[in-house]
Design brief:
Layout (H helix, E strand, L loop, with lengths): L16 H8 L20 E5 L2 E4 H19 L5 H7 L1 H21 L6 H9 L13 H10 L4 H22 L6 H12 L1 E9 L1 H4 L7 H10 L9 E9 L1 H5 L6 H10 L5 E2 L2 E9 L2 H12 L4 H7 L4 H4 E6 L6 H7 L11 E3 L2 E11 L2 E2 L2 H33 L4 H8 L2 E7 L20 H5 L11 E3 L3 E11 L10 H29 L4 H5 L7 E7 L9 H9 L5 E5 L6 E10 L8 H30 L1 E3 L1 H8 L6
Antiparallel strand pairs: 1-2, 1-17, 3-14, 3-16, 4-11, 4-13, 5-10, 6-7, 6-9, 8-9, 12-13, 15-16
Helix pairs in contact: 4-7, 4-23, 8-23, 12-17, 17-18
Length: 635
């Protein structure tokens, strides 16, 4: 469990905890809760949860949406074959069944959310805020459209996710964490150890005579697969990025100035104000209080009269965008320092606002950022032109031009590489400067010579076209081609074997009480010490395996471990174990407790979903699922 704790995740769309739990954790229990598989379905029904049927078409739409989402994240299309290899179909049907089960449970519990509440949730989502800090409808529509939603579908999905979160919170929202569990995790993370050690290397192995031709040939014959030449692909790459187009775009001074004025907050710190407010139950009380302030009563005294502490009225040092209530924000940022507003009709009552302090905005001057603005504007304008450039490339390819000819004609970057599956060239060097965010090597090995491939999308809105123009099959190399490599590996194996024997011998001597220095002396080694070791942290010259072994061993017990490479072996002994003091109220302990609480909550919820599915009666139409797997359109 200590290694299994993980952080909750959420999508860019600001989906709730429940969406992440249902979308990912449910996969951990595969198809638990699915009852007997039977054939008594309509041909269009894939599964049934209680009284709810999941149609093949519903599954296909969700499946296609999911593939598009994954493709956008990876910047390349996911084929159905790749999806099957990843198990996405089975994962998705499991997820949909779990979601439908939770939706049924929410209905049984009478959970409801009004359209107005959903609207408030969406408008309050920081993802959809524009430069002003307020909800930006254009940004909202662009983001949900890019994610494959229209407004109605997104609102419906948000409602379902929110209701699932309510169910989740009722099941595992406040799980108590045993102190012993948090303490164990704290010790696992923060225990420190000290060791005595020596590192045996090639010098301790002694002289290794050169292998005879017969020995080397036998060694090679037994390990030919290790020296086999990989398959290589010769690939033509044509890249087009917004930066390529941006270099041809002129940005006027007026446009740069307008961009700067519209986004001043981006280039510094906005004006901030220390604001206090007193909320009144009605406008009449607020007016009476305002009159008393005009007569000389201080704002603090008014608060005290109403039984309010400073913490009750203090909104803090805030920017205008930080204030949720627009009316209060407008009033607070219209007052001078020390000023008090007239009664303001706020969301939660009539309010008097007091500005305690004003911190002016601190914005970098236009001249200092104009070069960056021109670049940003050019890139922004280049992005819409990328689709036009994409179409031009496709038109040239359709006319019969090769990628190399297309690149020369359109003055785009073209290069040819020869690469194996690990991204190395025939000389064994890693190929540099491959386009980021597009796994062109994997895609090149998933296609063939003469196949016209779809362009890959790259981060920032660019495209990468690739054509395989040649292949060199994998083959067994002859000994004479790799003789130096074979001899080096043979020598390393000999050294490793000798060091293993010497390390074992040294450990046996230490176990019978021989002092460490005395055991190390015949090998010409000096015993070193290493303190403050932590689990999972490197500590050269000790290997990670040696560190792991040190934390599994008892104090004073000698041990040997593999070194950092085949020609090293570590011998060590734990000399000190420092157990951390556990402070339950410390931020670190609280973080551990939260991680455990989250893990326990998720495990409880998985069990809950399993029970709900069983109680509702969950069945799967295997025939329909097989037709989906086979790509049949028959229904």
């Amino acid at each position: 469990m200590l290694r299994g704790l993980r952080n909750a995740s959420s999508s860019w769309l600001g989906k709730s905890i429940m969406a992440a739990v249902v979308g990912f954790l449910v996969l951990a229990f595969a198809v638990w809760g699915i009852g007997d598989i039977f054939r008594g379905f309509g041909r269009s029904t894939l599964a049934k949860v209680g009284g709810t049927e999941i149609s093949i078409e519903q599954f296909r739409q969700t499946y296609n949406d999911r593939l598009q989402q994954i493709g956008r994240q990876l910047n390349r299309a996911i084929t159905p074959a790749q999806a099957r290899e990843l198990g996405i179909e089975q994962q998705l049907i499991t997820q949909i069944i779990a979601e439908v089960a939770i939706d049924e449970k929410a209905r049984q519990m009478g959970l409801r959310l009004s359209d107005a509440e959903i609207g408030r949730m969406i408008m309050g989502d920081p993802t959809f805020r524009g430069p002003s800090g307020q909800f930006d409808r254009q940004r909202f529509e662009m983001l949900i459209r890019n994610a494959g939603f229209n407004e109605a579908r997104f609102a419906a999905e948000r409602r379902r996710d929110s209701l699932r979160r309510e169910v989740y919170q009722s099941v595992g929202g406040d799980v108590p964490v045993p102190k012993a569990a948090a303490q164990a995790l704290d010790r696992y993370e923060n225990e420190r150890r000290a060791v005595e050690y020596v590192v045996l290397g090639p010098a301790q192995a002694g002289d290794i005579p050169k292998p005879t031709p017969e020995v080397l040939a036998k060694y090679f014959d037994e390990r030919k697969a290790l020296f086999r030449a990989p398959e290589y692909r010769k690939v033509v790459l044509l890249a087009a990025t917004p930066a390529d187009v941006a270099g041809t775009i002129e940005v006027s001074d007026a446009d740069a100035r307008r961009y700067y004025d519209d986004r001043r907050s981006r280039y510094g710190t906005p004006e901030r104000r220390k604001v206090e407010q007193i909320v009144f139950p009605n406008a009449d009380e607020a007016k009476a209080a305002a009159e008393n302030l005009k007569k000389g009563l201080s704002f603090e005294a008014l608060a005290a009269e109403r039984g309010l502490k400073t913490s009750d009225i203090d909104l803090g040092l805030v920017a205008k965008a930080d204030l949720v209530d627009r009316a209060i924000a407008d009033a607070a940022f219209a007052l001078p320092e020390g000023g008090v507003s007239a009664p303001v009709a706020g969301r939660f009552g009539t309010v008097l606002v007091h500005v305690v302090k004003v911190e002016p905005e601190n914005v970098r001057p236009f001249d200092a950022v104009v070069a960056d603005i021109r670049r940003d504007l050019a890139l922004e304008r280049a992005k819409p032109a990328m689709q036009s450039l994409h179409d031009k490339v496709e038109d040239e390819r359709a006319s019969g031009l090769s990628l190399e000819e297309t690149g020369k004609k359109l003055k785009l970057n073209v290069r040819t590489i020869e690469v194996d599956r690990s991204g190395r060239d025939p000389a064994g060097a890693q190929i540099a400067d491959l386009p980021a965010g597009a796994d062109v090597v994997a895609n090149a090995f998933a296609t063939d010579v003469g196949v016209e491939n779809d362009a890959l999308q790259t981060p920032g809105g660019g495209y990468l076209w690739y054509d395989v123009i040649g292949t060199t099959p994998s083959r067994e190399r002859r000994l004479d081609e790799v003789k130096d490599q074979v001899e080096t590996r043979w020598r390393d194996d000999q050294i490793s074997e000798r060091l293993g024997a010497k390390a074992t011998e040294m450990v046996e001597r230490l176990k019978v009480g021989t002092p460490f220095a005395e055991a190390a002396a015949p090998l010409g080694l000096k015993v070193e010490t290493k303190a403050d070791l932590k689990r999972g942290r490197g500590a050269d010259p000790l290997s990670s395996k040696a560190i792991d072994a040190a934390f599994r061993a008892d104090k004073g017990v000698p041990l040997a471990a593999d070194g950092r490479n085949a020609t090293e072996r570590d011998v060590l002994k734990v000399t000190e174990v420092t157990v951390p003091n556990f402070e339950a109220a410390s931020p670190e302990a609280q973080r551990y407790s939260e991680g455990i609480r989250r893990a326990l909550s998720e495990e409880l919820f998985v069990q809950f979903v399993t029970r709900v599915e069983n109680d509702l009666g969950t069945t799967l139409n295997q025939d329909a699922l097989n037709r989906v797997h086979g790509g049949s359109s028959e229904q």
